Every structure is written in C-alpha cells, then in structure tokens.
Amino acid sequence: MTQTDIHAESNRIIGLYVAKQEAIAKAAAEKKSVKEPTAKFSKTACKKIYNEAYAAGIKAGNEVGVPKFVVGEPTTPLGGNIDYSKPTYILDGLCGFAWVDIFPARGSFVTFLKSQGIGDKNYNSGYGIWIKEFGQSVDRKYAFAQAFAEVLQKYGIRAYAGSRLD
After folding, report:
1. How far apart are CA 33 and CA 84, in angstroms?
2. Are 71 and 88 in contact (CB under 8 A)?
3. How far is CA 74 from CA 3, 46, 87, 117, 128, in A?
4. Which long-range contacts link 22-31 to residues 24+ away (Cβ below 8 Å)?
C-alpha cells in the first residue's frame, strides 16, 4: 500500500466517523426538539393513567407465551438426561431486563412519578421506569413494558419499551 493509498483510506475512515457523529448529533437534536404534549394532567389523572398502565402491564406479562426451560443435574457427565432426585428448576423463559422510557423527562406525569418514587432520569435524557415484576423473565417483563408504554401513548405521553438479555 502506497503512502497515497494510506492517506486516501485514512480520509475515508475519518469521513465515515464524521458522518456518524453528525447523524448522532442530528438524532439528539430531534429528540430534544420534541415538546411535551399540551395536555397537563392533574395528580388524580396521573394516578389513574399510571394504574391503568400498570394493570395493562400485569395482564400482558401474565398472558405472554414464555418458553419453559428445565434446569437440573445430568445423570451422567455430559449426559442429556436430568436426575430429578436432585434439585430441578423450571425457568420462566430467558433472563433479562425491561424498562419504559418516557420523553422528555419533564411534565406533569413525570413529576407525578418522581413524587411517588417511581423511576429515575435516564442517561439518554429521558425518564426511565425499570420493570421489577415477573422475576428475571425478559419475555414477561418486556410484555409488561410494551403494554405500559402503549397506555401512556394513548394519553399523548411519548413512551417506548426496551429490553435486553442478562
């Protein structure tokens, strides 16, 4: 590779990096430019919305189909059969986390959540509620988060569900 080729490749990589940084900055600016809905909620209305969202989340988490995993000790080393005389567990799907992000991290509903000790400010400028229900089942937690976010969206609150495996 000649010096000119190295210089051209270096410029190409720098250009890609600059384009990526510009895209990130543009996305951040768009996120910050979104205003809170014009609707202001009373504390009573906020409580009603939260309770409705929570109930929808519980219902969705209970109804979602979750694969079952049997975990136990094999009867022989590297064996495929489980020795049921030893402790055996039936896991409720994969292990993970889920949350609801609310944007922006202000407004009457977020103020209500803060007053109740629910959620906290996210690293990404939103307000986050971690789903604590349903143990470690990522499927159930994510179903809860999706249903919760849908109820908030129904009331004009910008909310999104997120999850990740542990």
Report:
1. 58
2. yes
3. 60, 52, 11, 45, 41
4. 28/125, 31/103, 31/125
Mean pLDDT per block of 10 residues along the chain (166 residues) reads 61 65 66 54 94 97 84 78 78 87 91 94 88 92 96 94 90
Contact between 136 and 66 under an 8 Å Cβ cutoff? The reply is: no
Q: Which residue has the tokens 């993970």?
A: 96
Residue type, 137: S
Closest CA to 145 of 93, 113, 98: 98
Please give the Cα distance from 162 to 113 (Å, whole number): 19
Look at residue 70 in the predicted model and tell me its pLDDT: 74
Whether residue 120 contacts residue 94, with contact meaning beta carbons closer than 8 Å, is answered with no
Q: Give the span between the Cα atoms of 69 and 100, in whole angstroms.
A: 27
- 8 A C-beta contact, residue 147 and residue 57: yes
Determine contact, residues 76/83, Cβ cutoff 8 Å: no
Q: And the tokens for 18?
A: 């600059």
The residue extents of the domains of the chain are 1-33, 35-66+94-165
Give the whole-angstrom CA distance, residue 53 versus residue 83.
43
* pLDDT the model gives residue 38: 46
| Amino acid in position 145 | A
